[in-house]
Amino acid sequence: MDELIRNLAVYALPVLFAITMHNAAQAYAAKYFGDLTPFAAGRVTTNPLAHIDPFGTVILPVLLYLTTGFVFGYAKPLPIDYSRLRKPKRDMAFVALAGTAANFGMALLWLLLAIFLKYFDVSEPFPNMVAQAGIRTNLLLMAFNLLPIPPMDGGRIVFSMLPNKLAFQYARIEPYGFFILLGLMILKLLAYWVVPIMVVGEVLLHLIVYPLNFILT
């Protein structure tokens, strides 16, 4: 029981901040590109309380951890009216990428924390475990959301890049996106997408911090 409580505590802040910053970044991007819907809903903020969904942010991650050891969650749906963006087809990709960039940036910050904890010889396991959980959680959320299935962020990006005729044919998949995602989970196929993206993300992170590591060592 003590180990369970410790592990839940380790992932609590990383999951909360990963979900919050992902949604806040997309809300800011939507506002920047012309859609004030998230602003009117009070979502253009980094206040976690504005983004928390009691089930998706709290109950689901705990249940998943207890039953599978896998930690994942989601925030309240972000209200974005893509038709209000200045150039809807183009700008929806930037909105989607804002969430990805936020999670990559958060993973970088957690990695920097891990580096400085090591540099200052902080041997207590808890802060080091939280830092590692922060890296993994943000890379996982980034990779998961980049799935090229509407309405995932990756689906929005693919839609934005396709020629108009193909894009609107591709968008017809969206009503079935949840079921496709569920099928991939049941068949345990998600790892074939998520793991390589996480590996690439981790390699990029370590390339970015290499000069700092070199200086500190």
Describe, in plain words, how this protein is organized in 3D.
This protein has helices at 2-32, 37-40, 54-68, 88-119, 125-145, 153-161, 164-171, 177-186, 191-216. The protein starts with a helix and ends with a helix. It is globular and about 55 Å long. 32% of the residues are buried. The model has no long low-confidence stretch (mean pLDDT 90). It has 217 residues and is mainly alpha-helical. 72% of the residues lie in helices and 0% in strands.
Tell me how many strands there are: 0
The level of helicity is over 70%
Give the N-to-C terminal Cα separation: 38 Å
Mean pLDDT reading:
90
Strand content: under 5%
| Structural class by secondary-structure content | mainly alpha
SSE topology string: HHHHHHHHH
Helix and strand layout, with pairings?
Layout: H1 2-32, H2 37-40, H3 54-68, H4 88-119, H5 125-145, H6 153-161, H7 164-171, H8 177-186, H9 191-216
Helix pairs in contact: 1-3, 1-4, 1-5, 4-5, 4-6, 4-9, 5-9, 6-7
